[in-house]
User: What shape does this take?
Amino acid sequence: MPGLDRPRAAPVSPDANKGETPWTSDSEAGGDEEALHVTLPYEHGRKPYDASTVRRFRLTVVEGPAVGTQWESTADTCSVGSHPLNDFTVDDSTVSRFHCEVRIGPKGPQVKDLDSLNGVIVDGVQVLEGVLRSGSLLRLGRVVLRFDFSAENNRLPLSENTRFGTLVGASVAMRGCFAMMERAASRDVTVLLEGETGTGKSQAALAIHQASRRRDAPFLVVDCGAIPAHLLESELFGHEKGAFTGALQRRVGAFEEATGGTVFLDEIGELPAELQPKLLRVLENREIRRVGSNTHQPVDVRLIAATHRDVRAEVNAGRFRSDLFFRLAVLRIPLPPLRQRPEDLPMLVEGILDSLGADRERTAALRTPDFLARLRHAAWPGNVRELRNYLERCLVFEEAVELAEEEVLSGAPPEVDPSQPYADQRRRVVDDFERRYLRALLEKHQGKVAQAAVTAGMDRVHLYRLLRRHGIKP
Ligand SMILES: Nc1ncnc2c1ncn2[C@@H]1O[C@H](COP(=O)(O)OP(=O)(O)OP(=O)(O)O)[C@@H](O)[C@H]1O
Assistant: This one.
């Protein structure tokens, strides 16, 4: 897939990495591209991840300012950086605002670079994602932290339920998410849903709304990535008659229309810079100003936002205001990719086949242990949406389509089945064409969407929307 394993992008904004100092060290690995993907061994002696508990860990500053400062985990993650919003704030100009995240996952403790300026060097090797062991040294600019396991465990809040709204999952990762969603539903906090495409962010937002006290009021969705910047402000806040050319009528925006309910801002990472202070005002003062109006008016809505990128990296790059991130991330819920929770596959396959109205007898081949085992080996870059598309394709062919041959099959002329409704068949053929066209287009342009849009003769926003719909990452 184009774009994967790309080297870190250079900051694009003049505000990017503001105040941060580049750091070079002769003694440690630098920009060697191969070194970025090295995986280091972790401590095998003891299982680091259990059903509802996770091993506690400590980070200690062993080099740089404030040597000896220590931080101990209370859950399974720790974000480290110079911004006060981090779990562990390390105040140094060579440390990025959100520098890295340490997480105890099913494969042990890992560190992930959040697009920092000076990178993360683990035991002498620069990594974008690397596995840690007790005693590992993490260099962030001129600061060195030591990672150690503590003797105790932390309990993780897990839901007893294996579904929330339309979402299903029995894995620890999903039950952890469900616990947070249940908490979000019972309070009026702003929620930031994070996760790759197709991990269920939109469905999670709707389910939180439906389980909240606001359930009888509207749930309005605004996709910040699909609406051109000049129209987005009016979409969100409305406009007065005559506010701009073409504003023939006064228009109520999403925040007013959703009074008493929830506004779901999808792809919040795409919110243009000029609208960020306006959204901040909504969150701080609970008031909006229509385009072309001089007065503010109060609004009563809950905001849920979603993003497929790590907004902390956007803050580092100067593209997203840190104060807005602070207001949005009151409750952050990261939805795990499907490849990290293969144990959810049987439940997902059952649920999807049922929702597609599949006949149990005719689809017995799609429920066998063999079939499920094959699904476990796929990467699912488009996550549950891709799984759903794949199962739909199996239903069309009435057999378990070989995963490895998916592309080959989709290249063959599509079967025509006159016993199926015209609209359904046409949609499948068009979907299939769109997927293959988009993949080839992106490959031709090495993932550069702006260039690809010119060749395709379509608006960039429309191209982004199509890519998202098919779970294809540029
Ligand atoms: N845990 C889950 N259980 C059941 N269905 C799921 C789950 N996660 C996702 N889905 C299904 O996958 C599809 C995509 O979900 P959704 O649109 O909520 O993803 P998303 O993260 O918002 O994607 P995008 O970022 O591309 O907008 C939907 O059909 C949804 O019902």
